[in-house]
Amino acid sequence: MEGQTMLFHEIYGTYYQVVSAILSEAVDRTLTRKRLNDLVQELAFGESNLTIPAKLQQEKWQLLRKDYTTPIQRTPSMPLTLLEKRWLKALLQDPRIALFDVDDAGLEDVEPLYNPTDIAVADQAADGDPWTDPAYIAHFRTALQAVREQRPLHVKYRAANGHWQRWTAVPSNLEYSPKDDKFRLLIPGRTLNMARILECALADPEAPLSPPTKRPEGRSVTFLLKDQRNALERVLLHFSHLEKETVQLEEDLYRCTLRYRAEDETEMVIRILSFGPMLQVTDPPAFLDKIRDRLQRQRALGVPETHETS
Amino acid sequence: MAYQELIKDFQNTRETMRSFLVYGLKTRTGFAGKSARTYDDERRRIASWLGEYMCWRQDQDGRKVFLSVDSRQIPHNPLYQAFRACSFTDRDITLHFLLLDLLDVEEGHTSGELLDAIEDRYLADFQDPLHLDESTLRKKLKEYEALGLAVSEKAGRTVLYRRAPDTGVDLGRWRDAVSFFSEASPLGVVGSFLLQRLGNPDQPFRFKHHYILHALDSDILCTLLDAIRRHRAVELTLPSWKSDSANTQQVFPVRILWNIQTGRQYLLAVKPRESRLRAIRADNVQDVQVLEEEPRWRERKAAAEEQAQHLWGVSTNGWPALEHIACTVRVQPGQEYILQRLERERRCGKVEAVDPLTRLFTADVYGAEELIPWLRSFLGSIQSLECSNPQVERTFWNDFAALEALYGGTDHALS
Predict the structure, then answer these.
(1) To 10 degrees, the CA torsion angle through A69, A72, A74, A77?
(2) B155-174 pLDDT, tens per residue?
(3) Domain segments of chain A: what residues?
(4) Which domain holds residue B24?
(5) Among candidates B220, B187, B375, B94, which has minimal Cα distance to A71?
(6) Residue A88 at interface with chain B, using a CB cutoff of 8 Å
(7) Mutate which of A1, A2, A9, A11 to disrupt the B interface (most B C-beta within 10 Å)?
(8) Burial, B157: exposed, middle or buried (Cβ in 10 Å; 0-12, 13-18, 19+)?
(9) pLDDT single digits (tens) B354-376
(10) Counting CB atoms within 10 angstroms of each CB, which of A61, A142, B71, B391 has the fewest?
(11) Considering only CA atoms, which of A180, A95, A122, A13 is closest in space to residue B181?
């Protein structure tokens, strides 16, 4: 049925949501003019206050009487749409759903919106987290509870060098990387790979916390970019998830500055190098040295004779 | 026409938002094909939806408005907001709330009964009541049936309408899963609609390497996935590279390929009388029309899947011949993490241990030139590189020479 894929539709829109909230208060007979304006200000877009109150007050949308009551009898609600149910059903086929305590109750007769085989990921790491490992799932759920409730967590962790560490900290978030297909637990000053957590338990709210480590400052790198063979779009799209500033210097020459976290510096060197001579890093000098070091190591390791140009 | 915060057609806005986010350097005059008034309206609208994420910079060429987002810091994809801005008529919104109030899960009503109730119980209070006819109402009911909000059943010669029953999905129990998958799964925008129903709870998750731009293609992707599930051919509207007008192309869609590291989504598809698999960028697709079921879908899909096993990314430039590539990577003691990365990122390639510090990577792919950017990321550790397509080796080492020139002195600098 054609309607099954209507994603851009007004029923999902902000205006409908806001009017629903307004009518809920009108049904309860608590709505006032001020409250109507406050709800629009709080829930709608930046300039919706120019439209929504006027449309209701002028009876263009015949939902609200002059005295801010409504002929609507029940608090507005909307059943789940077919699209929403089909999306939920599709999630049940994703291996990562094992992390969450959900099932197909209420979705038994619903077709999934897509099948896992309909979508392939081209460049995801081959060593993603063990989504169906019971110990991993238990650690994940405990960590998620600690994040939700902002409670301290005891963690025993195997560091990259193989040594064990213990931390007691209030985690801020769980961070997922689709490229690495891994979760990381963010605690003050530290990022812990979830798959390397050996023990994970909620701590007493009064438990003494491990001293926080200071996170390194953010860094930036600046490079020049020659826009040949659509290079500008490719580079800017590749780095579009980072804060950036791009300036056009000449017709096909651009200068771009990216901001990143210090812990990601090696990754940034690799990613910039992957663009080859399309990019030229100009600042900072320490970043330039890292690129030169790799080029020198490559020269030392060998370059075919036919390409001996240095 | 006066400025409107909502939009009817997503395509124009999709283009403008992409320009803001990707480039971040266009001025009012840099938006080709749009009048200054159209640009001003679109910029104002996007700023109204995205608020804090919009930045601007003034330089000698004018005011440059752009989106600057560290996607690691933000809990939700801000571009989903654009999908909450679909325009509607006064009648649409009035009928929406009246119908959902009136329709009952148990007792069915005819469209005539519903019309009478709307006029008598709801609209009678207003000075200039909305004029409605039964045909308009039936059309809206049919639309809501397709959306899953209403159900109908025939009783003799009449049709009775009811509100769709609550199916027993405990959305509160789904809260964390929806929070996660609204950012980490295809069509996550649907998850964002569900989060809105849950009152937009705090997001416990953050996302690294999170490309948000693909959200703008959700509507196109949704239709394509539906066609893939139902083995239907599709007609795509794509930009023409030779003229300003668009052209159409019929294809049999096989699957969506998500390139996480570039944030791009592609449709893998075959043309009606061809066997070669092609990758079409989803962000280039302007419209999709779903056609009839492909009669030979099993056979065509199997052949396409076979080809897909030999894709490094999306290129099939060498088709039908496979290109063999072999690269030896050697590291220093203490750099074993580079070998681990090789193993982790090998995709359809194989990695064999030569000795504790050396690995041989091999792959047979349709377009070996696509491996070059990835191989460059191992510069400093490449002991040898061989490819059955000699152009790949030539390009790789020529680029290395160019890099040495770039970083060896200022004589060869890009500027």
Answers:
(1) -110
(2) 898 999 999 998 789 999 99
(3) 2-57, 82-118, 134-202, 218-302
(4) 10-84
(5) B94
(6) yes
(7) A11
(8) exposed
(9) 999 999 999 999 999 999 999 99
(10) B391
(11) A95
